[in-house]
Amino acid sequence: MANGVSSKGKILTKLSEFWFDFLSDTVPNHLALNDNSDDNLFKHLPAPLSEPKYRNQLAGRSLLVKKMKLIPLEVIVRGYITGSAWKEYKKSKTVHGLAIAQTDLQESEEFTTPIFTPSTKAEQGEHDENISPEKAAEIVGKELCDKVATKAIELYCVAKEYAKTQGIIIADTKFEFGLDEDDNLVLVDEVLTPDSSRFWNAANFALGKSQDSYDKQFLRDWLTTNGLAYKDGVAMPEDIVTRTKAKYVEAYEVLTRSKWVE
């Protein structure tokens, strides 16, 4: 984008930090510090990074993490049928090649149980490819794939139940995992942000249509409507930028029960 959403990186970082802590009893994560405030973070970074030209870019947008062996999958869990899953289901009654037992699903309907629908982890600048769980098992091995799927669905269910108490439906989300030196499963990257999840306003939920969201789907829809999806250097109208940021801030405030401070 030619003009980005101000403070977006900071919002995503703080929301990830919230979820890493919230889910820490369910799965360990890669955070290296208990206190990720800027003052404490920069004490642990090389001194040159405290120079203004670097600090201004890193402050509020950075977490110090432990290095893990990354599992090369985008671990997507879907609780509701929407987006690319809905498009596929309309054509073939499948999602990521999986036959869906429920019949005559409507757009935005909840699955009986959440489903694991992985994708490849593409190189920067390329697009991830939706794959079946069987293909994912070929990539990382069946035992590890099953472990990842089970843990991801567990995490999704824990987060979904909490979000529901705050008036938000988590329709789907993407997790990433790594392995530590003892091959224990560790949650890494970002987690449950508006960039990696679909957050719906529960109060406005209506079956059979797309939903009001607190995530980047709003921006995706604008780009698609204007024929600009997947194009580089797009300059967004300021009202679209402002409304996108407002959705991110609202998601942060509702989920964390904290006021966003610039």
Features:
single chain; alpha+beta; D-amino Acid Aminotransferase, Chain A, domain 1; two-stranded antiparallel ribbon
Structure description:
The chain is α+β, with helices and mostly antiparallel strands and 262 residues long. It has a domain of 142 residues: ATP-grasp fold, B domain (D-amino Acid Aminotransferase, Chain A, domain 1, 2-Layer Sandwich), CATH 3.30.470. The protein is 37% helix and 17% strand. It has eight helices and nine strands. Strands 1, 2, 5, 6, 7, 8 and 9 form a seven-stranded antiparallel beta sheet that branches. β7 and β8 form a beta hairpin. α1 runs parallel beside α8 and α5 crosses α6. The longest helix has 24 residues. It starts with 7 loop residues before the first helix and ends in a 6-residue tail after the last helix.
Give the overall pLDDT as a whole number.
94
The topology string of helices and strands comes to HHHEEHEEEEHHEEEHH
Largest pleated sheet:
7 strands, antiparallel
CATH fold call of one domain: D-amino Acid Aminotransferase, Chain A, domain 1
Radius of gyration: 19 Å
> What CATH architecture label of one domain applies?
2-Layer Sandwich
Query: What is the helix content?
Result: 25-40%
Strand content: 15-25%
Q: Specify the number of helices.
A: 8
Q: According to CATH, what is the class of one domain?
A: Alpha Beta
Distance between the termini: 22 Å
In short:
With 262 residues, the protein is α+β, with helices and mostly antiparallel strands. It is 37% helix and 17% strand. The protein has a domain at 69-210: 2-Layer Sandwich (D-amino Acid Aminotransferase, Chain A, domain 1).
